[in-house]
């Protein structure tokens, strides 16, 4: 792959931790960040729009994309497949875009093998008990599914130390502020700013190596 100019941010969380809501709030606060829209074989839920929330495809089409090496990463989650388009991602990075991947831990591991510089962010629930309360409060899952999600959550949380940042979603507004601050701080790093502000720095007489 050619050298990426933009940045990749990976946001991972167990089901019910509030990842989707926090990512939506982040994108509203930081419009320069672009969300990667995954391909999935799961059916669209009420209110979901093809191409906006996911690219909804059948199992046969997804398998063909795997064989065509169209995915940077893909994983099976609760019987459905999810994948990230490598061509789309690379083109956006080359344009200098900051891309956010809202994926699971399996996908995160695959992405970081290709892009070790990707920034990993883990959204942590305040407790397993609170996570269970949120899952049950949805009213959309069977008891079997809830127990499976809780078991998966414990396994995912075991990997939390592998990430660069941890945001605890105990209070939504505070968690949103923490998430936004990560993106703003990364953008203000000297290595990024000297590249972005090169013309202004040159006018000030600053010579870059």
UniProtKB/TrEMBL annotation:
CDD domains tied to this protein: GMPK
EC number: 2.7.4.8
Residue numbers binding ATP: 13-20
A cellular component term, taken from the record's GO annotations: cytosol
Superkingdom of this protein's organism: Bacteria
SMART domains in the record: GuKc (SM00072)
Keyword Nucleotide-binding on entry: yes
Keywords on record: ATP-binding, Cytoplasm, Kinase, Nucleotide-binding, Transferase
Start and end residues of each Guanylate kinase-like domain: 6-184
Subcellular location: Cytoplasm
InterPro entries with a match to the protein in the record: GK/Ca_channel_bsu, Guanylate_kin-like_dom, Guanylate_kinase, Guanylate_kinase_CS, P-loop_NTPase
Catalytic reaction annotation: GMP + ATP = GDP + ADP
GO molecular function, a single term: ATP binding
Function: Essential for recycling GMP and indirectly, cGMP.
Family per record: Belongs to the guanylate kinase family.
Entries under HAMAP family matching the protein: Guanylate_kinase
UniProt-listed PANTHER family: GUANYLATE KINASE (PTHR23117:SF13), GUANYLATE KINASE-RELATED (PTHR23117)
Protein name in the entry: Guanylate kinase
Gene: gmk
